[in-house]
Design goal:
Number of strands: 4
Structural class: alpha+beta
Radius of gyration: 15 Å
Helix content: 25-40%
Shape: globular
Strand content: 5-15%
């Protein structure tokens, strides 16, 4: 049985885990709970790697009016506003929040350690900002502790 883990880049909900990385012994992906298409991506899971997970997270921060990188894009120097946002959440600065999303949070979801997970956009509401997503491992047979 799959256990869906609600994840958030905006809150330190997940305890620190070991760094996730693809290994030669990793099981191949069996896909996501449902297949996404352009017209229904917001209602189903779609497969991503850690870089796409970060891009979607950055897009969520931007949608909430929190610019992440000086000059835009998906890498470079963090804005003072993003550093302050991350510090207010207890991550120290933008680099700390990026580490949480790309390492700690990712390791909690990528149970089979193959470098892929299934991501689902959540409805944007007052208590559910654009940088909150659902994530589940892409391997149905993976046991969740």
């Amino acid at each position: 049985m799959r256990r869906i883990i609600t994840v958030s880049a905006g809150a330190a909900v997940v305890a620190a885990m070991l760094v996730a990385g693809a290994t030669l012994a990793a099981k191949p992906s069996t896909g996501c709970p449902s297949t996404a298409s352009e017209d229904n991506r917001d209602r189903v899971y779609f497969i991503v790697d850690v870089d796409e997970w970060w891009v979607n997270t950055v897009d969520g921060f931007e949608a909430e009016g929190i610019p992440v990188y000086v000059g835009g894009g998906y890498s470079g120097e963090f804005t003072a506003q993003f550093d302050a946002f991350a510090a207010d959440l207890g991550f120290g600065d933008g680099a700390g929040l990026e580490f949480f999303v790309k390492v700690t949070q990712w390791a909690e979801i990528d149970k089979n350690d193959n470098g892929l997970v299934c991501m689902k956009d959540r409805p944007i509401t007052r208590g559910n900002p654009a940088y909150f997503f659902n994530g589940v491992d892409d391997q149905a047979s993976t046991k969740h502790g």
